[in-house]
Design goal:
The chain has helices at about 15, 30-35, 45-50, 55-65, 70-75, 85-90, 95, 110-120, 145-155, 175, 185-200, 215-220, 250-260, 285-300, 335, 405-410, 435-440, 445-465, and strands at about 140, 160-165, 200-205, 225, 235, 245-250, 280, 300-305, 340, 345-355, 355-370, 375-380, 385, 390-395, 395-400, 430-435. By secondary structure, it is an alpha/beta fold. Helix 2 crosses helix 8 (about 110-120). The protein has three domains: about 15-120, Alpha-helical ferredoxin (Fumarate Reductase Iron-sulfur Protein, Chain B, domain 2, Orthogonal Bundle); about 140-230 and about 400-465, FAD/NAD(P)-binding domain, CATH 3.50.50; about 235-395, FAD/NAD(P)-binding domain (3-Layer(bba) Sandwich).
């Protein structure tokens, strides 16, 4: 009651849109400790319930409040392998579940988390800690996103010999190539990766299993294989004009800019750039927001983001009570930088001239509840054209890419076309396990980390029970 919520805040818009440095600022240590003191150490910690990795939030908040930064770091790492990632990019379901959020003033849990881990790195609390002994068992982890990295880290800590395979040139998956630098500086990934390698994790990049190296060879070489390839099949929009130049998947756009930021040369003819263009982003989620911020930094003339779903409410609806995640209007830092947002619009076709897109034709829709489910209906006489010469499809992902590894090994899929696993997270192929978005579909980074930790436990039980 005495200490009010004090977010760290963000860099000024006019400053941050000129570069790709991280947007969020940092509070001083005294203020951060005071923010941790706002945690009430509830008898029933709903924040812990709302956190996919089961973070012991009241415990490390109390340690932070008392100035025990090392103790807070140790407690934080007890449940989360990569708090420096989640502390930057997690949508913080814990804060939605915080008791203080009943009055919309939750503890700054996410900011406290990243402050703890950054202080721990700066003061040398986080050091390489290789396992004291090795089991002699070898595990291949295919895919180095958050789930794959977490699984590899846990399995290595258990004493197994782990090799992490990645088809791209560097480790990180969508953490590295899909999330803009202004949200997650890639030196953060490199710092953690270096630590993992010093602890014994082997890394092989530029190797696509099922293409460059047959999956069956891995089965012969390793005692267990973990599939962590994510859900990288984007949702497409198969409408008239989809083939026009200037219509791209969001990940084509975002990954290219991240590579350019990392010093990779991309020929002008192959550049997807928003410079001087009127940009239309189709899809209202986080990926769409990332496209907005990137387009603004590239020098777009204008940016419009449309969403097929209705505009979320400003406050929780009656059927969305605390402590569940609040389905309310989210305004990201990218939206604050300059973007027109529109809802309940369905895209009908793309229009172009000389094979180049110039407009998107849309119409307004309503969502009517029929027999317990919602049905989309067009609003008559609402068709209109939105001028755009760069259109980015950010409508999410549908399932893992099936071609290559999954088809080669004959991995079974579930009704959603994700990898099918049993309660032990094992596939239909002996000693092949799966985790993360490859089994769940596209989810949060924190959920992927939790899944990676779970599959590591299942694989460890499979190899040597009880370690």
């Amino acid at each position: 009651m005495k200490i009010k919520k004090k977010p760290a805040g963000n860099r000024p818009v006019h400053e941050r849109t000129g570069d790709y440095s991280e947007v969020e600022q940092v509070l001083n240590s005294e203020d951060r400790m005071l923010q941790a003191s706002r945690c009430m150490d509830c008898g029933i910690p709903f924040c812990h319930w709302g956190c996919p990795v089961d973070n012991l939030i009241p415990e490390w908040n109390d340690l932070l409040y008392r100035g025990d930064w090392k103790g807070a770091s140790d407690r934080l790492h007890y449940t989360n392998n990569f708090p420096e990632f989640t502390g930057r990019i997690c949508p913080a379901p814990c804060e939605h579940s915080c008791v203080l959020n009943i009055d919309e003033e939750p503890v700054t849990i996410r900011e406290n988390e990243v402050a703890i881990v950054e202080r721990a790195f700066a003061e040398g609390y986080i050091k390489p800690s290789p396992p004291k002994s090795r089991t002699g068992k070898k595990v291949a982890v295919i895919g180095s996103g958050p789930a794959g990295m977490a699984a590899a880290d846990q399995l290595n800590k258990a004493g197994h010999e782990v090799t992490l395979f990645e088809k791209d040139e560097k480790i990180g998956g969508l953490l590295r190539y899909g999330i803009p630098d202004f949200k997650l500086n890639k030196r953060t990934i490199d710092r953690r990766l270096n630590l993992m390698q010093e602890e014994g994790v082997q890394v092989r990049t530029g190797v696509e299993i099922g293409k460059d190296l047959p999956g069956k060879e891995l089965l012969d070489q390793f005692d267990a294989v973990c599939i962590a390839i994510g859900a990288m099949q984007p949702r497409d929009l198969n409408i008239e004009g989809r083939e026009l130049d200037g219509v791209h998947f969001a990940m084509e756009f975002l990954t290219q800019q991240n590579r350019v930021n990392n010093g990779v040369y991309v020929a002008y003819d192959n550049r997807i750039t928003a410079e001087g263009r009127k940009v239309l982003v189709i899809g209202g989620g986080d990926t769409g927001s990332d496209c907005v911020g990137t387009a603004i930094r590239q020098g777009a003339t204008s940016v419009t983001q449309i969403e097929i779903l209705p505009k979320p409410p400003e406050k929780r609806a009656d059927d969305n009570p605390w402590p569940y995640y609040g389905k309310i209007l989210k305004t990201s830092t990218s939206h604050e930088e300059g973007c027109e947002r529109r809802w309940s619009l369905s895209t009908l076709r793309f229009i172009g001239m000389q094979q180049r897109v110039t407009h998107a034709e849309v119409e307004e829709i309503t969502w009517d509840k029929v027999d317990g489910s919602f049905k989309m209906n067009a609003v008559p006489d609402t068709r209109q054209q939105i001028e755009a010469d760069l259109i980015l499809l950010a409508m999410g992902f549908v399932h893992p890419v099936h071609e290559g590894l999954l088809t080669e090994l004959g991995i079974s899929l579930n009704h959603r076309k994700n990898v099918a696993v049993n309660n032990e997270m094992s596939t239909n192929i002996n000693k092949v396990f799966a985790t993360g978005d490859s089994i769940n579909g596209a989810t949060l980074v924190v959920t992927a980390i939790a899944s990676g930790r779970r599959v590591a436990k299942r694989i460890d039980d499979f190899l040597i029970s009880g370690t």
